[in-house]
User: What shape does this take?
Amino acid sequence: MTFDGFKIDLNSRSEAEVRLSNDQLAEQINENVTVEEKITGLFEALRGSIFHYLIAVFGRESALEAEDITQDAFLQLYKVMQQGQQIENPRSWLFRVSHNLAINRLKAQQFIAPLDDLTWEEICGKLTDPSMTPEQRAQKLEDFAIVHDAMKRLSLQERQCLNLRAEGLRYREIGEILGIATPTVGEFLRRAIKKMMLEN
Assistant: This one.
């Protein structure tokens, strides 16, 4: 898709996507480069994380919607930066905007669906390494099944907090993204971990 001469291509995802710290992202955004170059760098660094967050929390069946939301969030960042506004924490900003866009679409279209068992098996098949022995593969699939069952016990808020924390966001950042207090983030994470540790 092209926007004011700026092209975004979600299909050109790299397998080994680099995770940048807040300091590295802020450094990148403050460099003497064009807005397009800044957005392109951020897009390459964060698109997969945001897309995977949307899929993990809101469901695989909404993959096309998740791609649209990811792209929309970066287009909003582009517009804001074109207007000369400074974004101190682009990662947190993008996750918050993506989250809000997803919630708005959920309210308007009811597109978000839970991750079903068939989709989970498909994901597991893609995550296993073909060089594994049959025993290693069986163990990995068993581990995935345990995680999948545990994730079913989590509320939407607990899944959101857990996934954002897994992306390296701080409690304060998670609270800003979800619109909740920092202590509430801690409580959701505590409950999520407790539920995930329960035996089936």
The beta strands are 2-3, 6-7. The chain has nine helices and two strands. The chain has two domains: 2-109, 117-197.
